[in-house]
Sterol binding protein
Amino acid sequence: MSDIVVPGFKGSELINDLNKALNENLSAEERAKLIKQVNGVFQFVLTNKDKKQEVFTVDIKKEGKVVRGKGAIKADAILSLADDDFVSLATGKLNGQKAYMTGKLKIKGQIMLAMKLDTVFKSIQEKSSKL
């Protein structure tokens, strides 16, 4: 499994950590339970301070894997936000609903699926060094 850390994107470190947690730190049973519970593909479009964008796809529908760029499976929810806001969201410092209501987070697709992101982040927080 290769790292997907992108220089200039703090969020990519968390996404890389999410990938490691899904594939190395969760047991097969824990991963299967999370996939069944979430059943969705998320695409994160992160914009850094230099206005550069990176896309990451998190498949928690079939395999429980993360890729840089658009994944092979169509995303159920596309979340666009600033890199720093993603870090705050993933670490629990920013409430997702508040971020959405204030325009910091834009969601295309299944908005209700995005509510399950808390489940994703919480389920791997104890298995991860950065989340």
About this structure: The first strand starts at residue 40 and ends at 47.
